[in-house]
Amino acid sequence: MANALVELGAKFGDRIGTLAWNDYRHLELYYGVSGSGMVCHTINPKLFPEQVNYIINHAEDRFIFVDLLVVPLLEALKDHLPMVEGYIILTDEAHMPNTTLPNAMCYETLLSKQSTAFDWPEFDENTASAMCYTSGTTGNPKGVVYSHRSTLLHAICGSMPDAVAASYKETTLPIVPMFHVNAWGSPYASLMAGSKMVMPGPKMADGEALQNLIETEKVTFSSGVPTIWLGLLDYLEKTGKTIPTMTRVSVGGAACPRTIIERFKQQHDIEVVQGWGMTETSPLGTIFCKKAGMEELTQDELFDLQCMQGRGVFGIEMRIVDEKNQELPWDGVAFGALKVKGPWVASGYYGLSKVPGSEGCPVDELGWFDTGDVATINPQGYMRITDRTKDVIKTGGEWVSSIEIENAAVSHPDVAEAAAIGRYHPKWTERPLLVVVRKADKSVSSEQIITFLQSKLHKLSMPDDIVFVDELPHTATGKLNKLALRKTLENYQFPAQA
């Protein structure tokens, strides 16, 4: 791969784009591109075309490696990508498509002409290794650049026993996409530790395909977002099939509903390891692990603990602050804006100011990165995200957590998915509105859900109304798109106001 890049004329520091799934060719690119001193720029093919267009041009990618399924996207954009010199399609000659992409090449044909020996260059550890853009739900996406040093430190600390415990004894299935913050570091930590890797290709949300891979390849550990796990759990329940070799699953990208934790443990004896992070934190910030002295906790108490986002891993410092930037106590009660810093936390965005505290720089003068999350931290160091700053519902001068409402709602057996947003109220300024997707063939009513929630939520957090929809909007990374939801329901009025 590295020899092919040299033959193409790519040079040290060039950005090399990828639009690809979790497969072996993409893994070859991770190492061939970065190891030769270039920057492996993973691009999310699920983004809106105009976002993909902006990202490729902003990064000034010289070459794009593209999966067969994504070729039509680039064909539609090709006239707007003047800096791209060639497109390498990730397939062999037998499956090479007829394409309108200029200077299109076949990946396997390109590699077949190259030597397997390469004189790997040595360079400063702070050299750029990889690049990933934020999803850009507001404004243009921003490019986060990872160095070789930050990537290695992230892999080392992420593979420790109280993190994902990567080792040669494990078989790991990274379902989280390789274009989503480098699959949470799995391609680095797994190979560093010698774990066998099983790659799902584009079938990341297919319960049947995932169950078959897990059973056939004897997968012991896997990572993915909550919606993936809900789909797999429902498939296993429907078919009666099992995943006997799996011992742990890692959940991130969004708050993990308690029902996922309970179902994995009670139905499959699998432990859920919840974590938290962002594109700007490479992404690992916190991860769940039990501490000594917790052996006597009941199963319900453990479930409560697993619903939190875990403890900070070595290398990450955390703090929560109030609106005046005053640090708040770790008492499990106070909650405020979550800030972090560490050796793999972004200190700047590609093409924007890197002067701390200036506009466009993500860190302040002391190096703290404002995550945009609202959190609480208990005396044992377990952090719980209560909301995004922009998603907090402010009612009667109090903050209400939309995540708390959503997690309570999806624990109802007839609810498939739920989102809570704040809508205008003349007395309280805002009140919670709950938007619900029923499970297939279920007809649960608003009144039944309200009754169910009364024992789970504080009166202030109780939704004033429930709206049923066929589906909820999601971002390209699988998170609830509350910006789109608020736009759709911008003229909504609570019944008492109507």
UniProtKB/TrEMBL annotation:
What keywords would UniProt list here? Answer: Fatty acid metabolism, Ligase, Lipid metabolism
Specify whether Lipid metabolism is a keyword of the entry. yes
Q: Where is the AMP-dependent synthetase/ligase domain?
A: 1-350
Q: One MF term in GO for this entry?
A: ligase activity
Q: Which CDD domains match?
A: ttLC_FACS_AlkK_like
Q: Which InterPro entries match?
A: AMP-bd_C (IPR025110), AMP-bd_C_sf (IPR045851), AMP-binding_CS (IPR020845), AMP-dep_synth/lig_dom (IPR000873), ANL_N_sf (IPR042099)
A biological process term (GO) from this entry: fatty acid metabolic process
Residue ranges occupied by any AMP-binding enzyme C-terminal domain in the UniProt entry: 404-479
Record-linked Pfam families: AMP-binding, AMP-binding_C
Q: Which family does it belong to?
A: Belongs to the ATP-dependent AMP-binding enzyme family.
Listed name of the protein: Medium-chain-fatty-acid--CoA ligase
User: What is the organism field in this record?
Assistant: Brumicola pallidula DSM 14239 = ACAM 615
